[in-house]
């Protein structure tokens, strides 16, 4: 008891060490199965963890718990009380929710997980409301910070008439944009319109003539969802600037017949250093991007 304060300082330093050393999941994925419960909790409590998606972390925790706790009841207890609270369900994908909700594995407390997912989906569907019926799963509705995901969520508004159209928003923190220099690119999760999936991609482009790096934004069709039709779209990239409005930065049209990437190598028309220092673009440290995509025509491909 006389050393309680010193022990807490030591524990805090150990957690900070783990978080910093294992910030990039790609660099420690072969070691993760050997981590202790305390180590897993420390690493997954971090917002700075770079990983493909939150879905990936959920499946990782289930896999880790099955390897470390072979006894069913103990594993259920560890998952419910220690591991599931680390999962940021509000940043998981619909595909993962569908898979989890239809899962019949005994080591998952399905009633508990279903409440968490239901709360998240209702809050996403009605973001301006605070429904009292969600009191039992209120924690799932609280705003939880995104991690440094490789595949980013987008906020999407979809229209069916007079023609299929989506307006999708993606926010990137300044630190995430700075990482694009080394990570090369950041992808969105697919967003859907007229039965097709599209992906927004941000990447760093080097201008060979000036030898300067610039911020590029691109659009491609999701090859997993690509059907047998050619899709002609009109699209516009925009960014929010101070004080509040979105400003169009690039627009074009394209007929997608495969996974070809289209877009703009230098959407802001300034060198990378100038772009990163622009506080009119990084509003409170966040870059707000928008893509407005309208499907003009779909035709069957010739075989």
Percentage beta strand = 25-35%
**Portion of residues within helices:** 25-40%
Unreliable spans are 133-140
SS field, number of helical segments:
8
**Mean pLDDT across all residues, rounded?**
84
Could you give a short account of the major beta sheet? 6 strands, mixed
Evaluate the radius of gyration.
22 Å
Going by helix content, strand content and strand pairing, the class is alpha+beta
Keywords for this entry:
303 residues; POB1-like; alpha+beta; ubl conjugation pathway; six-stranded antiparallel sheet; BACK domain-containing protein; BACK
Structural overview:
There is one protein chain. Strands 3, 6, 7, 8, 9 and 12 form a six-stranded mixed sheet that branches. Strands 4, 5, 10, 11, 13 and 14 form a six-stranded antiparallel sheet that branches. Helix 1 packs across helix 2 and helix 3 runs antiparallel to helix 4. 26% of the residues are buried. The chain is of the alpha+beta class and 303 residues long. The protein has helices at residues 4-21, 37-44, 54-68, 72-83, 94-101, 110-125, 174-183, 272-276, and strands at 50-51, 148-149, 151-152, 155-159, 165-173, 185-188, 191-193, 196-207, 212-221, 229-240, 246-256, 262-264, 282-283, 286-300. Keywords: Ubl conjugation pathway. One of its GO terms (biological process) is response to red light. InterPro entries: BACK, POB1-like.
